[in-house]
Design a protein that fits this description.
The protein is of the alpha/beta class. The chain folds into 2 domains: 1-32 and 51-84 and 303-332, no CATH class; 91-291, von Willebrand factor, type A domain (Rossmann fold). 36% of the residues lie in helices and 25% in strands. It has 10 helices and 11 strands. The strands form 3 sheets. It has a 6-stranded mixed sheet, with helices on both faces. The chain has a 3-stranded antiparallel sheet with strand order 1-2-11. The protein has a two-stranded antiparallel ribbon with strand order 8-9. Helix 6 packs parallel to helix 7 (208-217).
Length: 332
């Protein structure tokens, strides 16, 4: 009843405090309202109480309801209709995900790829006003999802990423160039690429620094993330004839100098994620660094609603008076 209502004169609600006092006085003086008749015995009438006599004590409830609705009407309820105009100056973001077999390394639980997918999905959920796309790479690269505001579709693509979709290898340059090519024509003031990898560049046709130079020419800022613990990790070292990976201890090798240089010349930043918690912190920091400018204009319209409550107050008052002087009329 009061979901979207606001009250202009809330002080009138203090009148409701009179109800318990009036109820107490009504109960205390109840004997004064009835005549005393002396009878020798009640045999024959002791079980003759009628429906009218049963309901009459509840008559004051109608008067109380009438009083409550009148008080609400005096408090001047208004229905508030809000309209919001959102002017969002969004940021275009392209995620670049490494799908090389080393992303199955188990130094992250269950593995690097699954953790990276989950953290990226959480990041997408926090950027509701931005267009986000995704490129993937291993020994080659392609656009998995173009820039879109339909984040549901993007998260479905993220959830379906698997190692083995592409020829194995780590073509960092191709992955970055694919993302830049997808985002370069954007008319937004801020264009961002988040490149995540866990290895050295060892494949592809475009050198990583060449891709970084292209990104700088199109004012694309690149954040690079190196994923993997330090030392050794249980990772795929070979593959059976049936396609199953054979795991063994392998040294974690990430070309951090390359990733630092890419981020430096494009105005971004390099991060090293040695755990799932650290990777989450990195995405949270990028989320804070790349703020979307949002202007919200709220318009309010008010409709007076006191007449509804006044109507019910009058209705209950008239009903109580009608019943008191007709059906429940008593002889003084």
């Amino acid at each position: 009843m009061f979901g979207s209502l606001e009250f202009v004169n809330k002080a009138f609600f203090l009148l409701l405090l009179l109800l318990p006092l009036i109820g107490f006085l009504y109960y205390w003086r109840r004997k004064d309202r009835f005549l005393n008749i002396r009878m020798s015995n009640l045999k024959g009438i002791e079980k003759s109480k009628s429906l009218r006599a049963t309901l009459r004590p509840y008559l004051p409830v109608l008067r109380a309801l009438s009083f409550i609705f009148f008080v609400i009407a005096l408090a001047r309820p208004q229905e508030v209709l809000k309209e919001e105009e959102i002017n969002a100056e969004g940021i275009d973001i392209c995620l670049v995900m490494d799908l090389s077999s080393s992303m199955l390394a188990q130094d992250f639980k269950p593995d690097r790829l699954q953790v990276s997918k989950q953290v990226a999905t959480d990041f997408v959920s926090k950027r509701e006003h931005d267009r986000i796309g995704m490129a993937v790479f291993a020994g080659e690269a392609f656009t998995q999802c173009p820039l879109t505001t339909d984040h549901r579709v993007l998260k479905e693509f993220l959830g379906n990423l698997e190692c083995g979709m592409l020829k194995d290898g780590t073509a960092i340059g191709d992955g970055l160039a694919t993302a830049v090519n997808r985002i370069k024509e954007s008319e937004t003031k801020s264009k961002v690429v988040i490149l995540l990898t866990d290895g050295d560049n060892n494949a592809g046709y475009i050198k990583p620094m060449t891709a970084a130079e292209i990104a700088r020419e199109f004012d694309v800022k690149v954040y690079t993330i190196g994923v993997g613990s330090r030392g050794q990790a249980l990772a795929p070292v070979s593959r059976r004839s049936d396609g199953q990976y054979i795991f063994g201890l392998a040294k974690v090798q990430i070309d951090e100098e390359l990733l630092k240089e890419i981020s430096k010349i494009t105005g971004g930043k390099y991060y090293r994620a040695t755990s799932a918690e650290k990777l989450q912190q990195i995405y949270d920091e990028i989320n804070q660094l790349e703020k979307t400018k949002i202007e919200v204009t709220t318009l309010k319209r008010y409709n007076e609603e006191y007449h509804r409550f006044a109507f019910w107050g009058i209705l209950f008052f008239l009903l109580e008076a009608l019943l008191r002087f007709t059906v429940f009329k008593t002889i003084p």
